[in-house]
Amino acid sequence: MSQIQNIQKLSNAELEEATPFNASWHQDYNDTAWVFIGRLPPEMNEMDILIMFSQYGVPQSLKLARDAETGESRRFAFLKYEDFKSAVLAVDNFNGYEIIPGSRIQVDHVRYKKYRYTDADDANIEWDKALKEEMEKDMATNKETATQAIEDKEEGEKSADEDVDEDLVDPMAGYLAGKKTDDRNHHHHHHHHHHKHHHHPAEEEGNQTSRDN
């Protein structure tokens, strides 16, 4: 039985028995958030792996093994998550996953020791350094995007409040001021002619409508 099948058998048995997380076989590796990824398609590069595995958490480090001379993928990698639970999810969901027809990847917990470079590894050192910088840049960009979204939302709400003030408060104030002026003029007119003028019901209703508008 292959290692892929061994891992699947363990996970399926726990699923059937409803094994609590604190009693899971995964707990044997609760001191590490590293996972081993094997049997990768040769065309998969670091960015492909990061995109795929970021579905279950935040990757913090990645090392794809490459041939020292050709730079071609050796089809296995080591990836570290931000926390252990992400590693558990990756193992449970990606082990045995068929990326391309007929090719299933292996994903398992691992206690990874960082590679010690030699003088002949200048290219690998530069590549890993560039990859790390890209990962950090992506994380920083995500945080900046989230912060900007919050600021834009607050600014939008503030602008909306200002628009309401301009559309409702100022026109109403102008209307009320005009109404008071009309009322004063109308009152002054009645003060001198009230004994000669009689309102028709329809005229009174029209005046009331005008005032209400």
UniProtKB/TrEMBL annotation:
GO biological process, one term: mRNA splicing, via spliceosome
Positions of the RRM domain: 33-112
Short name of one Pfam family: RRM_1
Basic residues composition bias: residue spans: 186-200
UniProt entry keywords in alphabetical sequence: RNA-binding
GO molecular-function terms, A-Z: RNA binding
Stated name of the protein: RRM domain-containing protein
Signal peptide from the UniProt entry: none
Species the sequence originates in: Dekkera bruxellensis (Brettanomyces custersii)
Residue span of region Disordered: 139-213
InterPro entries: Nucleotide-bd_a/b_plait_sf, RBD_domain_sf, RNA_proc/Spliceosome_comp, RRM_dom
One GO term describing the cellular component: U2 snRNP
TM stretches of this protein: none
Matches recorded under SUPFAM superfamilies: RNA-binding domain, RBD
